[in-house]
Write a structure and sequence with these properties.
alpha/beta, Rossmann fold, Arc Repressor Mutant, subunit A, 4 domains, 4-stranded mixed sheet, 3-stranded parallel sheet, disordered C terminus, WHD_ROQ1-like
Length: 360
């Protein structure tokens, strides 16, 4: 999950133990740099220059760089941080085979995809947990008040911000800095706005994990969970999504590995509130018109659209969440459904949860 503090922790460890290593390097933002014209070669050149302590090491090709890095890692005790790795090719180009790394070396990898760590067989995986309320309040206060705790007048509203951020350091820092020296009225206005429109800086960082999903099915599963299935049993959700052709048996584990969702001890699906908001915002931004969006999860919005007397043009399918039983009569008998292409599925939150499929 982006913004949880992986890079900050890696920097802290690096700075704490760097004096123990003559040869060391910190490669930051690998995912971003790798996408450049000379990204892989630039990273190899930086790594070799840092370790060999030269001003510039010219790498002629990626394979040539791999050979030089292998030679270096076999013979020197090194400390290397590979920050924000997102594909296996990056690890292959920058650290090669772990069995060929010199004894006593330390390689620290930060990634949003735990599957990569399993593939190369790392010795230890540390999952970064979100901050508790006390830690959150202190971090937020340093940015919002330039001190370790809020002023008395702002204590209660600060707690509201902490709740919204859900222990995510990035959100605490961004909102704290934004609210610095603003009035209490402005704070309340910002909080009200955030409930409708998520903060762009936070969303941009979180969306990297979503954009990194390999296919549309994984993205669809994530959006469906954000809109409909939070707190629902994993088996129940898997059955429904498999019935929709989304292959949730593999899709849900992928989302867990990417830290986009989690499976609680009671087998219920969970998700960070800000990730939920990010997913729903993706759906909202797909069209300014609700009736053209792929998913509707607020029952009032559903009723407003489906009970209008004006014929609407719908996308090929859309998914809607029905909260109240008494809406069913209004919906299934209304003429607007004659003009729908496909109503993919309806989900009822009633005593007996079930799935209805209407085909047209």
């Amino acid at each position: 999950m982006g913004g949880i503090g992986k890079t900050t922790i890696a920097k802290s460890i690096y700075n704490e133990i760097r004096h123990e290593f003559k040869y060391r390097s910190f490669l930051a933002n690998i995912r971003e740099v790798w996408g450049g014209d000379r990204g892989p070669i630039d990273l190899q050149e930086q790594l070799l220059s840092d370790i060999l302590k030269t001003t510039k090491t010219n790498v002629h090709s990626i394979d040539w760089g791999k050979g030089k890095i292998k030679e270096m890692l076999c013979t020197k005790k090194v400390l290397v941080v590979l920050d924000d790795v997102n594909i296996f090719e990056q690890l292959n180009a920058l650290c090669g085979n772990r069995n060929e790394i010199s004894r006593g070396s330390v390689i620290i990898i930060t990634t949003r995809n735990v599957r990569l760590l399993k593939e190369i067989g790392v010795d230890y995986v540390h999952g970064v947990e979100k901050m508790n309320k006390i830690e959150s309040l202190e971090l937020f206060s340093w940015h919002a008040f330039r001190r370790a705790n809020p002023t008395r007048d702002f204590f209660e509203v600060s707690k509201e911000v902490i709740t919204y951020c859900g222990g995510l350091p990035l959100a605490l820092e961004v909102l704290g800095s934004y609210l610095y020296k603003r009035s209490k009225e402005e704070w309340q206005s910002v909080l009200s706005k955030l409930k409708e429109i998520p903060n762009d800086k936070i969303q941009e960082k979180l969306k990297i994990s979503y954009d990194g999903l390999s296919d549309h099915m994984e993205k669809d599963i994530f959006l469906d969970i954000c809109c409909f299935f939070i707190g629902k049993d994993r088996g129940y959700v898997t059955e429904i999504l498999n019935g929709c052709g989304l292959h949730a048996d593999i899709g849900i584990p992928v989302l867990v590995e990417r830290s986009l969702i989690k499976v609680e001890k009671n087998n219920k699906l969970g998700i960070h509130d800000l990730l939920r908001d990010m997913g729903r915002e993706i759906v909202r931004q797909s069209s300014p018109l609700r009736q053209k969006r792929s998913r509707l999860w607020v029952h009032d919005h559903v009723l407003d659209i489906l009970t209008e007397h004006t014929v609407r043009t719908f996308c090929n399918y859309f998914k809607i969440s029905i909260i109240h039983c008494d809406l069913i009569k209004n919906i299934v008998t209304h003429s607007v459904f004659i003009f729908s292409i496909i109503l993919f599925f309806l989900i009822f939150w009633v005593k007996a949860v079930g799935l209805l499929i209407f085909g047209f």
